[in-house]
Amino acid sequence: MPFDFDWSQLFTWRALINLLDIAIVAFVINQLMKIVKGTRAVQLLKGIGVILLIKFASSFFELRTTEYIVDYVIQWSALALIIIFQPELRRGLEHLGRGSLLPRKRKINPSEQLVQDISRATQYMSRRRIGALMSIEIDTSLEEYIGTGISLDADVSGELLINIFVPNTPLHDGAVILKDFKIAAAASYLPLSESPAIPKKLGTRHRAAIGLSEVSDAITVVVSEETGEISVARQGNLISPMTKEELETYLRKELVSEEEDEKNFFQKLAEGFRKGGADK
User: How far is CA 276 from the centre of its chain?
Assistant: First the structure.
């Protein structure tokens, strides 16, 4: 008897709904795989696979005690995962909250004049090995850290930035936070990164810069007191060393550009998880 297939069944409303359902699930799984790629979650998935194999083997060979223990582990695994991966979950959700499902216009940030002021001050301090730490607020509010310093609300100028960081002055120890074309505060305390991936040669300034970049989208410029090297911390990464031209190009791209932000909802979430994994 020849195979008789009703091709009209492929074009029913129910078939289209099922196809859409499968496409959505495939898309979500694909995005989740991108999220866990390169993070500790990959090792976690391998561990889960081993537990499932043990569960299957103990059930097949009727290893009652082993199966009981594995069942107990599985019951508490959800709570354990939340506790173990709390930093990754928190940072992933923070990026998710700052993102959107659709592309959006990037907020117009401080002008070309701000870039020139920061560059001029940074070059002066680099040549004289004056340590400096300057954070620029983007979308995430830095009020929590502004409150730890001395409020200034002063217009930005290269000369003022240099004067703040001159050694043995009241405001030189800590970070300057720039907000809305103003120096909002000086001598502010920033959260220190606990990432073991940070080289031991880097000091407290660099750890503070990376730490702030892990919990916000701020851009932080660092001048090393020991070497005079210029670095930029953003999104959990440290770009170092940077020349005058590289610094200005980077700041113009991030602060003055009005190009559309192409990152979508899932890409923001992936970034948060990758950074969380890098902290461990």
Answer: 7
Question: Strands, DSSP E only, in the chain?
Answer: 104-105, 132-136, 150-155, 175-179, 182-188, 219-223, 230-234, 237-239, 260-261
Structure tokens at 20: 């859409």
Q: Name the residue type at position 185.
A: A
Question: Hey, how many other C-beta atoms are within 10 angstroms of the C-beta on 135?
Answer: 28
The residue count of the chain comes to 280
What DSSP state is assigned to residue 268? Answer: H
Question: pTM of the entire structure?
Answer: 0.55
Structure confidence by residue, pLDDT tens digits, 38-74: 555 666 777 778 888 888 888 888 888 888 888 888 8
Q: How far apart are the first and last CA of the chain?
A: 63
DSSP 108: P
Interatomic CA distance for residues 215 and 211, integer angstroms: 7
Q: For 193-250, what is each residue's pLDDT tens digit?
A: 888 888 888 889 999 999 999 999 999 999 999 999 999 999 888 998 899 999 999 9
- Sequence letter at residue 119: S
196 upstream amide cis, omega within 30 of 0:
no
